[in-house]
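Worked example 2:
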Amino acid sequence: MTARPDSDAPTSPAHADSAHTPARVLVTGADSGIGAACAVALAGPGRDVAITWHVDEDGVQATAREVRERGATPHVLHLDLTDPPQGTGVVDDAAAAMGGLDTLVMCSGTGTATLLVDLSYDAWREVVSVDLDGAFCCLQAAARHMIAAGAGGRIVAITSVHEHASRVGAGAYCAAKGGLGLLVKTAALELAERGITVNAVAPGEIATPMTGQEDESVLAGKHRPGIPVARPGDAREIAATVAFLCGPQAGYVTGASWVVDGGMLLMGPMAGSHMDSDDWRTP
């Protein structure tokens, strides 16, 4: 097969967007943990960063202060994705406040620690509504704004290692994150010609309130023998990967799931042959 000469190369936004820099950013779930770290990592002089919160208003105000300290203008919005269509309205509000939207990072999430046979339908629906339905609404609305602007864009979804591997007691969470991973791939296919990349970042155990920890040092008293690097991750380590995917160097990356887990997923066969307790059967 003969390569097409450069003179015949397409002139779509997919080509024009190779130098994308996030200027009008929306980060959902930015009141703590990974979302807060992503908002700060994407803040910079002259940028606008919209950040959402659900229950921790003090937390999102702390994030806003850090965003402002980095020279960006914060825009704080409330978002409750147990009512997924709120995602559409909040994306529209953020775009209106910033004069447009070129970058979306979806960090809102919730989960359970309940065996499937004991999981109520209401609990199932809450997790799937927030983690999958809400993400769909936000992604769709953001894509529409980016398409209308015609300048490309970046969309990143925070999934989980449980996008790729199941966990006892996390049936709804695994189903939602697995579904979100495939939604990312479909969106990447459909939006590529518009110059919009869509990727997932799949964290392992990160020291945040979501894992029953605080945003604290991962080096002190945090030994994890089941993780090759032997510690939890830091939210800023996830944010660094997100910042890369949102920046100009990642113009040729789309439809990917970037696992950031200290090697946790590599332990599957090793854990199976070396564990000497049935404790894992209990959430």
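Helices lie at 13-16, 33-42, 57-69, 86-98, 121-149, 171-191, 235-246, 268-274. Strands lie at 24-28, 48-53, 73-78, 103-106, 153-158, 196-203, 257-260.
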